[in-house]
Amino acid sequence: MHGCTFSDNYADEGGAVYSSADSIYQGSVEIHGCTFSGNYAVKGGGAVCSIGGSAEMHGCTFSGNYAAGTGGGAVYSTEDSVEMHNCMFSQNHANGTGGGAVSSNKGSVEMHGCTFSGNYASTGNGGVLNSNHGLVWFEQSIMVGNRVKFGGGGSIYLLGGHLHTGFGVIFENNNAKKGSGGALQCGDEAFVQLNNTRIQYNEAEQGAGIHIGHCSVELINGGYIYKNVATNQVSAQLA
């Protein structure tokens, strides 16, 4: 798909696009320069749902999409490989398990040069991304002003699996005001490696920068954890 616009569509899964692999079809989808706005899914993936295959998105814009059930306000994937390059995600909203912009279950997610702003998980975790036992890679990407209402991880919630950031990743002004991890929360023996990453001006009830719960976090090549605020006045940066 190239240069398409998907607006105000409705489906059970994948409000605009649904792809699923089986024994014959590999379930591969490539999307270039497309705009997704105001799409709605009853379950997962307000705009795009990809199951068991692979999805690549280049130069796409996702705004105001909504997933009411299993999460992923813009994109939902299960046992799938997802790559996003130079995409913009704004004001997407998820209910259910969370992932205001993206929800990934036992798959891999790579994001290069992407911007996430104003995405929201009203229930569940991860204002930007909710990852369940998968592999996540961010590079040259910015997450600003994303939030969760009750859960953890104003930007990212990682349950098991691995998260690696390359250079140029910024978490700023994200919040989990009634939960933990203003920028990031991890658990269930997850491993997080933050490479020269900036985490600043985030807010949460505890662990305003990062909430570490039964997981390992490694900071390498500098980085910047600055002026994050814990509303319970404990563990302002890490918890």
Automatic annotation (TrEMBL):
<keyword id="KW-0964">Secreted</keyword>
<keyword id="KW-0998">Cell outer membrane</keyword>
<dbReference type="InterPro" id="IPR003368">
    <property type="entry name" value="POMP_repeat"/>
</dbReference>
<dbReference type="InterPro" id="IPR011050">
    <property type="entry name" value="Pectin_lyase_fold/virulence"/>
</dbReference>
<dbReference type="Pfam" id="PF02415">
    <property type="entry name" value="Chlam_PMP"/>
</dbReference>
<keyword id="KW-0732">Signal</keyword>
<dbReference type="GO" id="GO:0005576">
    <property type="term" value="C:extracellular region"/>
</dbReference>
<keyword id="KW-0472">Membrane</keyword>
<protein>
    <recommendedName>
        <fullName>Right handed beta helix domain-containing protein</fullName>
    </recommendedName>
</protein>
